[in-house]
């Protein structure tokens, strides 16, 4: 029974010793089985065990490749949000922090540390519905510039991931279908799998999902929900224009499909469009959080849903154990009302704009897809680079990026692209890391595969 683990241990040791190099392709499973004198089913289990340990990654139609990792690394997801090795510049994580941020946040925290205020903030856990004041404050923040968001539909969670999970859990049952964009937030795939749902990628053009594709998908078999990122889509930074929003809203309203709108990054957008859900009365479910606006260490997530559905979403929050902390909710309300969130939003928009200019300069001539105030950029790699091979080569040179395959919702749509998160690392490290990435592309995969030493990145040493 444990034969496959012993074989996996030997392969892991070869990876650790460098006998199998980053980006190297393993033989097809049947060839592996013949070489080792084992059954094809055992070979399949070996490859599955290596993938579980985070040592290899499989690409449909291409094979299985050695990842850039260490044998004692924890198994991770395609979009890795765990800590990297100390020497790695992590462009996967994307939690922006601007100069002076702590000084802006400190006064409210100082107030809450007074014994009387702290007692009130910690006396009871925050209910899913929060407080009346909290609902009013968040309705104003989330609905701007549309003042019609109903506070009675606000439900609080610990973060945006929990808000997404709770909202989808309230809509989706085993066997249901969820419409999504061709590239989507990887967490949604995990949530769908846990709920027993199936993701249905919609056809899209450079303006976003096609209304006709949505109608066709729903009529072939009803969609229980849609999950969309209409503003500063992650990973492409695309924002739906007014025309496409109206077209989609018309189809969605006609078909009566509930929509989950993810607006976590929308605060950076400088346009004045109201939430997409404002076009969908009775169907729109908006999810957001303060982790990007403020900081991930003390954040609150929320869902703004039709008031008639708030009880069901709140039950999903309680069932999942996803309630917001009372202290975090109280601090968030104060930061919103005293203008701190507005000041941080302005500062982070300026910082994102600056970092986009740094990326454009360091990767001059590279086809980057982004927006002026986005904290990430989507890089379509030149042939013959593949997304995972480039990701592995970058990791070997001390830079962690997210392969485009992490965002793909269908095996037929696995783009050879990477997402670069620009918001988490100090500016100097960012510039050096971008320089390393540019050099890797210039050297080509042949240099990586043959072990030719790479030149030092700009500003290194």
Q: What is the tally of helical segments?
A: 16
* Overall mean confidence score, pLDDT: 88
* Shape type: globular
Query: How far do the termini sit from each other?
Result: 50 Å
Helix-residue proportion: 40-55%
- Tell how many strands the DSSP assignment holds: 18
Enumerate the strands of the largest sheet in spatial order, edge to edge or round the barrel.
5-13-12-11-10-6-7
Parts with pLDDT < 50 across at least 5 consecutive residues: 69-86, 449-461
Amount of beta strand: 5-15%
From the alpha-carbon coordinates, what is the Rg to the nearest angstrom?
Answer: 23 Å
> Structural class, from helix and strand content?
alpha/beta
Please describe the biggest sheet, giving its number of strands, its sense, and whether it closes into a barrel. 7 strands, mixed
What can you tell me about this protein's structure?
The structure is a single chain. This protein has 16 helices and 18 strands. With 461 residues, the protein is of the alpha/beta class. Helix 7 packs across helix 11. The strands form 5 sheets. Strands 5-13-12-11-10-6-7 form a 7-stranded mixed sheet, sandwiched between helices. The N and C termini lie far apart (50 Å). 41% of the residues lie in helices and 14% in strands. It has helices at residues 3-17, 29-36, 40-52, 101-112, 115-122, 132-143, 160-169, 186-195, 211-220, 242-255, 310-320, 326-337, 340-362, 387-396, 427-443, 445-450; strands at 25-26, 56-59, 63-66, 89-90, 154-157, 177-180, 198-201, 204-205, 208-209, 223-228, 259-262, 284-289, 301-304, 368-369, 376-380, 399-400, 402-403, 417-421. Mean pLDDT is 88; it is low at 69-86 and 449-461.
């Amino acid at each position: 029974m444990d034969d496959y683990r012993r074989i996996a241990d030997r392969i892991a040791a070869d990876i650790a010793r460098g006998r199998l190099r980053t980006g190297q392709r393993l033989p097809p499973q049947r060839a592996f089985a013949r070489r080792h004198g084992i059954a094809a089913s055992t070979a399949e289990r070996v490859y599955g065990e290596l993938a579980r340990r985070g040592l290899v990654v499989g690409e449909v139609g291409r094979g299985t490749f050695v990842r850039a990792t260490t044998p004692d690394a924890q198994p991770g997801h395609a979009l890795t949000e765990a800590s990297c090795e100390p020497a790695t510049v992590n462009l996967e994580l994307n939690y922006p922090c601007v100069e002076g941020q702590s000084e802006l946040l400190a006064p409210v925290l100082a107030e809450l540390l007074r014994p009387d205020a702290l007692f009130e903030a910690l006396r009871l856990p925050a209910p899913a519905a929060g407080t009346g004041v909290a609902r009013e404050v968040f309705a104003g923040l989330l609905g701007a510039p549309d003042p019609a968001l109903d506070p009675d539909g606000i439900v609080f969670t610990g973060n945006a991931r929990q808000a997404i999970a709770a909202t989808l859990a309230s809509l989706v049952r085993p066997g249901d279908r969820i419409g999504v964009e061709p590239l989507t937030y990887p967490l949604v795939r995990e949530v769908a799998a846990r709920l027993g749902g199936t993701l249905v990628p919609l056809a899209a053009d450079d303006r976003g999902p096609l209304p006709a594709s949505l109608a066709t998908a729903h009529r072939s078999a009803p969609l229980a929900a849609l999950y969309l990122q209409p503003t500063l889509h992650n990973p492409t930074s695309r924002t739906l224009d007014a025309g496409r929003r109206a077209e989609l809203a018309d189809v969605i309203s006609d078909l009566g499909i509930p929509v989950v709108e993810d607006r976590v990054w929308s605060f950076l957008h400088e346009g004045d469009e109201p939430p997409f859900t404002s076009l969908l009365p009775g169907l729109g479910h908006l999810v957001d959080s303060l982790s990007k606006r403020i900081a991930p260490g003390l954040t609150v997530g929320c869902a703004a849903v039709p008031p008639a559905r708030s009880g069901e979403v709140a039950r999903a929050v309680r069932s999942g154990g996803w309630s917001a902390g009372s202290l975090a909710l109280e601090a968030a309300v104060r930061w919103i009302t005293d203008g701190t969130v507005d000041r941080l939003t302005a500062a982070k928009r300026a910082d994102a704009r600056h970092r986009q200019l740094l990326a454009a300069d360091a990767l001059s001539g590279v086809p980057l897809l982004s927006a002026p105030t986005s904290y990430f950029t989507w890089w379509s790699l030149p042939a013959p680079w593949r997304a995972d091979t480039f990701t592995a080569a970058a990791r070997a040179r001390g830079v962690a990026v997210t392969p485009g395959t992490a965002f793909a919702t269908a095996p037929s749509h696995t783009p050879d692209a990477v997402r670069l998160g620009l918001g988490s690392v100090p500016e100097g490290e960012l510039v050096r890391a971008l320089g390393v990435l540019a050099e890797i592309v210039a050297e080509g995969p042949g240099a990586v595969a043959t072990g030719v030493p790479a030149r030092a990145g700009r500003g290194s040493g």
